[in-house]
């Protein structure tokens, strides 16, 4: 089989978005158990924003190709892989390597995308949908009739969390800047200005008895307020440290401080629970991890195919303009997720 020429976006170091590099390399034929995909969509998430600063907790050494997740169509299969996969569309959680025109992945890591689903729309629900589904249903275990607080309800994970919660009969209070409040109401949530100096007071007006779960990607000092807003038996789910995004110093220190705080809170006899969500938890038990991935992501993509979830695609940007896409995602001005799509004809 002839080699495939791939266009890739390389992160050479801790650089500005404009300094990302566009390179080409030859992809060999897929080896045993592997498959080659023509990438149709790859996401721009907070993980890549941190990686380009050198601040993501366990990122690889520079240089590398970022791209936490992707959707693509199989173009070739290696030995031991069903050749019937060729021509079919799949989603994959990659952590790195997704910002490319082609990717070679383990076939066992691929999750089928339902027929008729737009690849960019499916992409918005790979890492975001998996994160939201697991935090809501597997970690917090929120039930119909309960109330949750979603920080950043206009973002990729936040908007997905909001939709999944509303579908489950759960009331949602969502924080965001006022320009996003109309969009949050359209999702079925009650918006609150995240910059309000009395944010906890505004939330308590809407939920006097507290909320049953808080989903907090911000971290920093505000997480104390998040914990204080819990109702008896409530759960705080932390899944990021966006508040420390621009701070200098170790990429691990903010996360370690957060872990220590959550451990202390869990030791208190107040009936509350605090936990940090990691999408890769349990990945060392590869077969079990893959089974859960297929089940959970499959459930989310099925809801999308049924029209019960609405994809929040903030923008579709050609792959070779990944720097612009990253700047847009970091601007905080968009609702949903910025998605990289195949290179424009001039870049091929």
Automatic annotation (TrEMBL):
The secretion signal range is none
Which named protein is this? Answer: NADPH:quinone reductase
Lineage of source species = Bacteria, Bacillati, Actinomycetota, Actinomycetes, Kitasatosporales
> Which Pfam families does the UniProt entry name for this protein?
ADH_N, ADH_zinc_N_2
Q: What SUPFAM superfamilies does the annotation carry?
A: GroES-like, NAD(P)-binding Rossmann-fold domains
Membrane spanning stretches: none
State the Gene Ontology terms under molecular function.
Answer: oxidoreductase activity
Species for this entry: Streptomyces radicis
- Residue ranges occupied by any Enoyl reductase (ER) domain in the UniProt entry: 13-340
